[in-house]
Amino acid sequence: MKSLALFKNKRLALGKFLNGPLPKDDLARAYARCFNSRDGQMVLEHLHQITVFRITDPLIDPAALRQLEGQRQLVLFVCQQMAKGQKN
Q1: R_g of the chain computed on alpha carbons
Q2: Shortest CA distance to 71 belongs to which of 87, 86, 56?
Q3: Cα separation of 40 and 12, whole Å?
Q4: What is residue 23's predicted lDDT score, i.e. its pLDDT?
Q5: pTM higher than 0.85 for the full model?
Q6: I want to staple 31 with a disulfide (CB 3.0 to 4.6 A). Which of 11, 46, 70, 81 is the partner?
Q7: Nearest-angstrom CA–CA distance, 7 and 30
Q8: CA-CA distance, 18 to 7, in Å (whole number)?
Q9: CA 35 from chain center: how many Å?
């Protein structure tokens, strides 16, 4: 229950961002700032290892495969946003 309360508090703190679209350039620069640090690169590399580079068994359950594909898309989205933010 503690984590749920923390989530609700963070959601309330982010309310100004959740109530409308963020400027795309600002958001892309934020991705770049978050993941360009040494720690950010380490996290991104880990996310790649557990999603993008993961090799699955040919008999994987279709639901598990859909979930993995969604995770891969999210990691690649973060990378795309980072690249945009570095250009701006």
Answers
A1: 16
A2: 56
A3: 25
A4: 78
A5: no
A6: 81
A7: 21
A8: 14
A9: 10
- Name the strand (E) or helix (H) holding 5: helix 2-13
The separation between the first and the last C-alpha atoms of the chain, rounded to the nearest angstrom, is: 41
Q: Structure tokens of 32? A: 């770049």
- DSSP secondary structure of 23-50: PHHHHHHHHHHHHSSHHHHHHHHHHIII
pLDDT in the model for residue 19: 63
Give, as one character, the DSSP assignment of residue 52.
Answer: I
- Residue 53, SS3? coil
Q: Which two tokens stand for residue 57?
A: 């068994």
